[in-house]
């Protein structure tokens, strides 16, 4: 299921990038080629580029024409495309709301845990005839998380090296009661895209980590309304830092050490 390609004794690094709202892909590579790949009989577009010798496969969550809300993103086909392209590391960007006063808008956070409150997503790559009980003790790739942390340190951005992501369906924002409940349960930030992305990646044996930009306080923390235009303004203010984090991280992925993410899904049960 997971293929390691050795070229002249070194890893041929193939990195998938999943871009969130406002993430300007063209600033990662100097140029891209638009390509398509067939996944489950349907074509999916992506951008292929080179970043100092690293093959980059860039996907935006909004792969269909027109506005695509987070509950309509085709997460499964994006992840299957990554697998077909033999991508071995995925760096995702996302925007999140804070559930705690100490997690401030403008800060970045390297997620390490999640609480899944989604209800209407395709949440697994498996079906009733073929499945696995996959370990999710640490759902995000620790090697990639470390690369992102090193990148944040080097650039000098304010960041949290860990945090619990509460995944919700959206597209509505949360109520004040939900924000309070999520924080009591241990959540630090809330968002609408990491679930099921991180789940599908782990089930497919792909290394996956996300760098999230905090764009607002959750409902009821500051007393203000949560408005999309305010979140968007915060994205525009800080997206350059997110891009810098990714670019710096890419330079270090080529030397990353062996990772065992693909071992988590080795026990496939067939009926
Ligand atoms: Zn990994």
Automatic annotation (TrEMBL):
Record-level GO BP terms: L-methionine salvage from methylthioadenosine; nucleoside metabolic process
The UniProt record lists the keyword Transferase: yes
Organism (species): Alkaliphilus serpentinus
Pfam (any one): PNP_UDP_1
Gene Ontology MF term list: S-methyl-5-thioadenosine phosphorylase activity
Domain of life the protein comes from: Bacteria
Matching InterPro entries: MTAP, Nucleoside_phosphorylase_d, Nucleoside_phosphorylase_sf
GO cellular component entries: cytosol
Boundaries of every Nucleoside phosphorylase domain copy: 14-235
Keywords assigned by UniProt, alphabetized: Glycosyltransferase, Transferase
Protein name: MTAP family purine nucleoside phosphorylase
